[in-house]
């Protein structure tokens, strides 16, 4: 079974990587981009029967820094 954890910075947390991408896009002639925020997607191959709560517990304990990041869990 597949599980996907999407991790993104919380609002208000500075995103230097997103800022650099935004600047580069403007330099490449894409002024219509107002803001860029960078996150990560972690795909897990888990045992059948693994619950969303179990994957969320993995995210809280290891995959996301919950002080500055939010995460979303999807099971497929």
CATH homologous superfamily (4th level) name? Phosphoribosylformylglycinamidine synthase subunit PurS
Give, in order, the helices and strands. Answer: EHEHE
Helical fraction equals 25-40%
Q: Determine the CATH topology.
A: Mth169, Chain: A
Q: Largest sheet, order of strands side by side?
A: 2-1-3
Number of helices: 2
- Total strand count, please? 3
- Please outline the major beta sheet: 3 strands, antiparallel
Q: Under the CATH scheme, which class?
A: Alpha Beta
CATH architecture: 2-Layer Sandwich
- Structural class call reads alpha+beta
Mass-distribution shape: elongated
Q: Averaging pLDDT over every residue, what do you get?
A: 98
Query: Terminal Cα separation, in Å?
Result: 7 Å
Task: Tell me the domain tally.
Answer: 1
Contiguous runs where pLDDT drops below 50 for at least 5 residues: none
Radius of gyration: 16 Å
Q: What percentage of the residues does DSSP assign to strands (E)?
A: 25-35%
Would you mind describing this structure in some detail?
By secondary structure, the chain is an alpha+beta fold. The protein has one domain (2-75): 2-Layer Sandwich (Mth169, Chain: A). Helix content is 32%, strand content 28%. The chain contains two helices and three strands; from the N terminus they run βαβαβ. The protein has helices spanning 16-27, 52-63, and strands spanning 2-9, 40-45, 69-75. A three-stranded antiparallel β-sheet has the order 2-1-3, covered by helices on one side. The longest helix has 12 residues, at 16-27. The radius of gyration is 16 Å and the shape is elongated. The chain starts with a strand and ends with a strand. The mean pLDDT is 98.
